[in-house]
């Protein structure tokens, strides 16, 4: 019996009347149209009462699971104690959150807080330009760094729009949105991931203020750096005076408490965090070298970089971040070890099931984040995915799992995220559902086509 989504359909019908596209943030609009109304631990519930094991995690922030007791208790306490948004001066929780963030991520000498990851990456660009006096920035083909004009480009770009792989060169700027003023592309350079020659060729021009990139491309699944890639990039940035701004909005706190940079062993000039830092509450953060961060408070107003936002440092969000970071610090690595073990079990089980079913597939995983690519090797850049991954099978696979109570966002290459609330039983249940799906006609009837 297919799942019933009658109430979801009714709510969509109402939303469509006044909300263009029927939902806020139209990157959330997918088929099937399910309206989720409650989350607890590893599970989410829709308006019709159907229950799903959640691997979407709202695009990854819920590292500790939905309604995490430790995080929600911190938020409730802040409400009970009347923590306020005064809009005037600082607050003790700002100092607490800053101290905790710098304790978690040792490369951060100073930090600032925003409400979203996009705002924080926006500030990274401004800081870098103010610091270097240079105009241009570099981003990755297949990377996502937020919605603002210069970075809203080149994620899952059709190859017809960017041409074949161009080692050592750059790709045309392909906007993700209408409504940009002309000329934005003039100062943005798009290169392939894992292509250090392309970076050096651009850096040599002396125009580049900043390289802004995710350390692992996690908005096209999981595209990992080749061994030594980030060490070379770090050296190139130092040699050419380019600010290395590592976008850890997705990788930060998820792969390690000190960010993926701690696994790489590199020191970025700036780091950007969001998502898991407050376990689903809206927080962005930027931090790094004091000499760059201090530009937010430069004595010379011509050199000062503006930071402002009515809701920056919102007390309930700060409480959530403090609760999240304290919980992770107190676990002393145990949460991340457990997440890694769950991830390993899922990876191995999935790989075996695909092998048994004779479907060419590779499971790419970093700790609790994973992606199944229907191709015969782990991809190393966007071109590799666009040319080899079976996108249509990917979407059918996700929909077949949703029908079996396993929620992975039904859009090709979107990352799966395990939370600390998932259990070994949940992983086993997932594998049983995948096994059934791989035998089903809705998936296998058309597999390989
Ligand atoms: C790597 C990365 N950077 C920045 C952002 C933007 O963060 P936000 O959606 O909070 O503005 C995202 C969002 O998905 C992201 O994945």
Task: Explain the overall architecture.
This protein has 449 residues and is of the alpha/beta class. It has a domain at 69-331: Aspartate Aminotransferase, domain 2, CATH 3.40.640.10. It contains 15 helices and 14 strands. Strands 4-10-9-8-7-5-6 form a seven-stranded mixed beta sheet, sandwiched between helices. A four-stranded mixed beta sheet has the order 1-2-3-13. Helix 5 links the parallel strand 5 and strand 6 (188-191). Helix 2 (69-80) runs antiparallel to helix 10, helix 3 runs parallel beside helix 10 and helix 6 runs parallel beside helix 7 (229-240). The longest helix is centred in the C-terminal third of the chain and has 24 residues, at 334-357. The radius of gyration is 22 Å and the shape is globular. Pyridoxal-5'-phosphate is lined by residues 59, 116-118, 121, 144-146, 214, 219, 247, 249-250, 274, 284. Residues 59, 116-118, 121, 144-146, 214, 219, 247, 249-250, 274, 284 line the site of pyridoxal-5'-phosphate.
Key descriptive features of the protein:
449 residues; alpha/beta; Aspartate Aminotransferase, domain 2; seven-stranded mixed β-sheet; four-stranded mixed β-sheet; 15 helices; 14 strands; 37% helix; globular; binds pyridoxal-5'-phosphate
């Amino acid at each position: 019996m297919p799942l019933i989504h009658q109430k979801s359909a009714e709510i969509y019908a109402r939303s469509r009347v006044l909300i263009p596209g029927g939902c806020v943030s139209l990157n959330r609009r997918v088929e099937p149209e399910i309206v989720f109304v409650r989350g607890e631990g590893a599970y989410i519930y829709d308006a019709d009462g159907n229950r799903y094991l959640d691997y979407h995690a709202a695009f990854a922030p819920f590292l500790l699971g939905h309604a995490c007791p430790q995080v929600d208790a911190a938020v409730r306490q802040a409400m009970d104690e009347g923590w306020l948004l005064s809009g005037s001066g600082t607050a003790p929780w700002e100092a607490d959150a800053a101290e905790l963030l710098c304790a978690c991520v040792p490369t951060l000498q100073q930090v600032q807080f925003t409400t979203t990851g996009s705002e924080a990456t926006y500030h990274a660009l401004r800081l870098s330009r103010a610091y270097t006096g240079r105009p241009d920035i570099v981003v990755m083909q297949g990377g996502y760094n937020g919605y603002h004009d210069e970075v809203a480009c080149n994620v899952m770009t059709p190859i017809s729009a960017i041409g074949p792989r161009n080692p050592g060169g750059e790709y045309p700027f392909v906007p993700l949105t209408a409504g940009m003023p002309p000329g934005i592309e003039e100062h943005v350079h798009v290169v392939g991931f894992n292509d250090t020659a392309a970076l050096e060729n651009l850096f040599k021009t002396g125009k580049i203020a900043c390289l802004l990139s995710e350390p692992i491309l996690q908005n096209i699944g999981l595209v990992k750096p080749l061994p030594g890639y980030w060490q070379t990039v770090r050296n190139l940035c130092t040699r050419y005076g380019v600010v290395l701004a590592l976008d850890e909005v997705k990788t930060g706190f998820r792969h390690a408490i000190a960010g993926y940079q701690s696994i790489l062993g590199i020191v970025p000039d700036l780091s950007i965090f969001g998502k898991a830092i407050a376990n689903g509450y809206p927080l962005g953060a930027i931090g790094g070298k004091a000499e760059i961060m201090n530009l937010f408070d430069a004595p010379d107003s011509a050199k000062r970089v503006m930071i402002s936002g009515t809701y920056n440092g919102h007390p309930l969000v700060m409480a959530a971040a403090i609760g999240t970071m304290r919980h992770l610090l107190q676990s002393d690595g145990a949460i991340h070890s457990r997440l890694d073990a769950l991830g390993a079990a899922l990876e191995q089980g999935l790989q075996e099931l695909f092998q048994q079913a004779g479907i060419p597939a590779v499971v790419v995983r970093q700790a609790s984040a994973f992606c199944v690519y229907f191709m015969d090797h782990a991809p190393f850049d966007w071109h590799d995915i666009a040319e080899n991954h079976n996108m249509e099978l990917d979407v059918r696979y996700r929909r077949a799992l949703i029908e079996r109570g396993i929620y992975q966002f039904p859009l090709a290459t979107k990352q799966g995220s395990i939370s600390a609330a998932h259990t070994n039983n949940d992983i086993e249940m997932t594998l049983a559902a995948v096994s059934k799906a791989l035998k089903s006609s809705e998936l296998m009837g058309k597999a390989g086509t």
